[in-house]
Amino acid sequence: AGRCLNDRLREHKPSLTSTVGGRLSVHCKTCTCTPSLKKTSIIGRFREKQTREVLEAFTILSLADRCVGQPSVALGEKEVAFLRTFDCGSAVCP
Q1: pLDDT per residue over 60-70, tens digit each?
Q2: Using one digit for the tens of pLDDT, what is the confidence trace for 36-56?
Q3: The pLDDT of residue 93 is above 70
Q4: What's the rounded Cα separation, in Å, for the pair 81 and 28?
Q5: Which distant-in-sequence residues (6+ apart) come within 8 Å of 1 by Cβ?
Q6: Which of 15, 27, 39, 57 could cross-link 71 (Cys pair, CB 3.0–4.6 Å)?
């Protein structure tokens, strides 16, 4: 299973004020925005790491400029087109 969401969010918060930061910190400083960490939601739960990574990549690609993350795996055009055929019942599916 993946790491606890609360642990990951706790790690992001102090990174926003540090002088050296990750993608989220750099984005927030450049864009002058603030992440809504309290509004974070889980988009899916899967035991298999590969399945979680595919969902992550599809979500990041679908959100485009509304997401500052980088996918852990690369999806090709055919994979994205295939995933879009599913009715996932969320705003992630265009």
Answers
A1: 898 887 877 78
A2: 888 888 888 888 889 889 998
A3: no
A4: 31
A5: 47
A6: 57
Using a cut of 0.90, tell me whether the model's pTM lies above it.
Answer: no
Q: What region does 36 belong to: left with phi over 0, alpha with psi -120 to 50, or beta?
A: beta
Task: Quote the crossing angle between the two packed helices 5-15 and 23-31, to the nearest 10°.
Answer: 50
Distance of CA 50 to the CA centre of its chain: 15
Tokens standing for residue 7: 């642990």
What amino acid is encoded at 59 in this protein? T
**Hey, what long-range contacts does 41-45 have (CB within 8 A, 24 or more apart)?**
42/5, 43/90, 43/92
pLDDT over 70 for what percent of the chain?
87
Structure token digits, residue 34: 């603030």
